[in-house]
Amino acid sequence: MTKFNLLRMRPACAPAAYALRRPVLSLCLATVLAVSMQSAAHAAKPGSQKPGAIIVIPNDYGGSVRKRTEEIRQINRLGQAVEIRGRVCMSSCTMFLGANTVCVLPETSFAFHGPYRFFSKLTSLEFDRWSRVIAAHYPSFLRSWYMQTARFRIHNPMKIKGRELIRLGVPRCP
According to the UniProt entry, where is the signal peptide (predicted)? Predict the structure, then answer.
């Protein structure tokens, strides 16, 4: 008998072990799927209608202040929690700090700037109005800083790390 044939021989218990392979593999796969679905069930995206859901914010580069205001209003109305977990939270993303229940990661970089419109300049009244809308979504220690300093930075945002926000009182995500 050659070495190759010896390796191809099955021991006496091989048929039983082979028969168990598929059910064991199926059980492992089902367990992995159940665990991943359970953890995914705890996280939701902005716009979720599920009361009490945890809204996880990944990297977010901002967007419409008007739309973000409505998102946050809905989050608070549904009693949802916000976890800012991306590496960046820029522009209108920073307004999530105004959610009733929010936490941040120390390594997240938050970028603050004043309101602007892409294709036409805001009037001074519009600039003040939208600045107040944005600032209303910040904790008090950020609100005054934003109104006095950050809102006047339009194309060069001021950056703050999550660790600084945590030091100032924003809860750290577990």
Answer: 1-43
Tokens of 114: 């004043």
Please tell me the distance from the alpha carbon of residue 100 to that of residue 75, in angstroms, as a whole number.
8
| Terminal C-alpha separation, the chain | 61
Rounded CA-CA distance 168/166 in Å is 5
Name the token pair of 172: 């750290």
- Asked if 72 and 52 count as a contact pair (C-beta separation under 8 A), the reply is no
- Return all residues near 112 (Cβ < 8 A) that are at least 6 apart: 94, 146, 150, 151, 153, 157, 158, 159, 160
pLDDT digits (tens, 9 = 90+) for 80-129: 999 999 999 999 999 999 999 999 999 999 999 999 998 889 999 999 99
> H helices then E strands: how many in the chain?
6, 7
Query: Hey, where are the domains in the chain?
Result: 12-42, 45-167
| Multiple choice CATH, 45-167, 3.40.50.720, 3.30.70.920, 2.60.40.1820, 3.90.226.10 | 3.90.226.10
